[in-house]
Amino acid sequence: MKRPKVRNERFSRLEEDEEDKLLAALDDCRNPYIKPTVILALETGMRRSELLSLKWGDVDLKHAWERARARAGMEHYNLAISRLFELGWGEVKVSSVSGHRSMQCLKRYANFRARDLAKELG
Asked: How many domains does the chain have?
């Protein structure tokens, strides 16, 4: 006589508001890596064992960034320099952080929105 097969299939799916609740609860975690790891799991469907066995060699951020930009229909963007200026940082601080030695080079990467410039002008 054969033993009956045990079907231990589970159906578990986050309800609409549960993902928001989970991510909000992770804001209070002492470990700063937990929330990004959970977001990665939610976005990719990776299992815990797959996440825990990841090595930096498995991560290709350059191509991931390029694919994300292409999906979003974005051209090449230089965000960091512009954001630092938008935060009110001066040229000396921005160039110190970015490593740009000349104002000409720094200006090349500072891309301001026209509406922000207009607002500054009043």
From this structure: 2
State the sign of the Cα–Cα–Cα–Cα dihedral 56, 58, 59, 62.
positive
- The residue written with tokens 């930096």 in the block is 56
Rg, C-alpha atoms of the chain: 23
pLDDT in tens, 79-90: 778 888 888 889
3-state secondary structure string across 26-68? HCCCCCCCHHHHHHHHHHHCCCHHHHHCCCHHHCCHHHHHHHH
Domain range for 104 is 80-121
End-to-end Cα, the chain, rounded Å: 86
